[in-house]
Design a protein that fits this description.
Elements (H helix, E strand, L loop, with lengths): L1 H5 L5 H5 L13 H4 L2 H17 L10 E6 L5 H10 L1 H4 L2 E6 L3 H10 L4 E3 L2 H8 L2 E7 L8 E6 L4 E10 L3 E8 H4 L18 E4 L3 H8 L5 E11 L14 E4 L2 E3 L12 E3 L2 E2 H10 L3 E7 H8 L8 H6 L5 H4 E9 L3
Parallel strand pairs: 1-2, 1-4, 2-3, 4-9, 9-13
Antiparallel strand pairs: 5-6, 5-8, 6-7, 9-15, 10-11, 10-12, 14-15
Helix pairs in contact: 4-5, 4-12
């Protein structure tokens, strides 16, 4: 999955993505459908600055805003617009983007922003004080794909094998052999139906560890689709791993057929994400649905049109997406 998405020559994000949203993209996001999400994030930024004061500002009184994985850049534009012209004067936007293709598109929307290859680099330029947000970031981290073997009572890791005779096929290796000492999250330690597949986002922890030392004071907002704990896999025996090509959803063996030319993703376990952040010293402020977040911070915006209604729809996108708000460091 890491190679399919991020290989420097063959990866989807590094070479083959055209854009995010629209007829040219392979998938859309809440940000490409409506400005409402940007308005709500702008209101959240204002609230954090009002609460934490100078702790979030640099010596010149500026507020550094880091968006990780900004896609086409349209969300940042909505955030800046929602902030209003006076408050926007104090904001300095930073983009952490690994895709050269998307960087070029982002520059056309916000040429005044600063671009960075990593969060650690962005934090260094901010002096360790920043507002950090992301939309549909954590689902694109590579996963460890597991299958439950009920007769043996063990987890097996799903391997992808390639041979000239048989092409691509899956093989299953006991997890204790493939990754000795690998810890399955506590919420996964129960009896599952035979063959149940789950995804472990093991790449989150080293990624967070890479930039924690550069933090002094920060507020972070993480928006993604997923659920909490075992509810993530209700009525999903095949797990949540899937791919998107030209807005078409591909699952099962089809995720192996367009290597590097389609997006790959797996739902986020927000219980694991929250616990991981807390283990690094982040305080959990709120964990809520996207519908709740939007109505709480930008009430009434749903009336703006059909697309806004869709991203807040109960039983749909409004509940499929969750929002995690966390803080690190001292207040003013």
């Amino acid at each position: 999955m890491a190679a399919a998405l991020y290989h420097p020559t063959h990866g989807y994000y590094t070479k083959h993505i055209a854009t995010v949203g629209g007829h040219r993209g392979d998938f859309a996001t809440s940000a490409t459908l409506s400005e409402w999400l940007g308005k709500a994030i702008a209101a959240w930024i204002k609230a954090e600055v009002e609460l934490r004061g100078s702790a979030l500002k640099d010596s010149h009184g500026r507020i550094h805003v880091i968006e990780i994985g900004p896609g086409s850049g349209i969300l940042a534009r909505s955030v800046a617009k929602g902030a209003g012209w006076w408050f926007r004067r104090s904001l300095r936007f930073h983009f952490v983007e690994v895709s050269p293709v998307l960087r070029q598109e982002q520059r056309t929307l916000d040429p005044s922003a600063a671009w960075h290859d990593s969060v650690a680099e962005a934090l260094q330029s901010c002096g360790g004080r920043a507002i950090i947000y992301s939309n549909e970031l954590f689902d694109a981290f590579p996963v460890v794909l597991l299958r439950w073997n009920l007769p043996m009572g063990i987890w097996e890791e799903v391997y992808v094998m390639l041979s000239p005779e048989r092409g691509v096929r899956e093989e299953f290796v006991p997890l204790e052999e493939s990754r000795p000492g690998f810890l399955v999250p506590e919420s996964f330690r129960r009896e599952w139906p035979d063959g149940q597949r789950v995804e472990i986002h093991a790449a989150w922890e080293p990624w967070l560890a890479d930039w924690q030392s550069g933090l002094k004071c920060a507020s972070m907002l993480s928006i993604d689709y997923g659920a909490r704990g075992e509810s993530l896999y209700q009525r999903r025996p095949g797990g949540t791993l899937r791919a998107f090509f030209k807005h078409q959803r591909n699952t099962g063996s089809s995720i192996y057929k367009l290597f590097g030319r389609q997006d790959m993703t797996a739902d986020v376990d927000f219980h694991c994400l929250q616990e991981l952040g807390e283990s690094f010293g982040w305080e959990t402020v709120a964990s809520e649905t996207q519908a709740s977040f939007l109505e709480r911070l930008a009430p009434g915006a749903v009336a703006a049109g059909r697309e806004s209604a869709f991203i807040a729809q109960p039983g749909g996108a409004g509940e499929a997406f969750l929002v995690l708000s966390q803080r690190f460091g001292e207040c003013a």
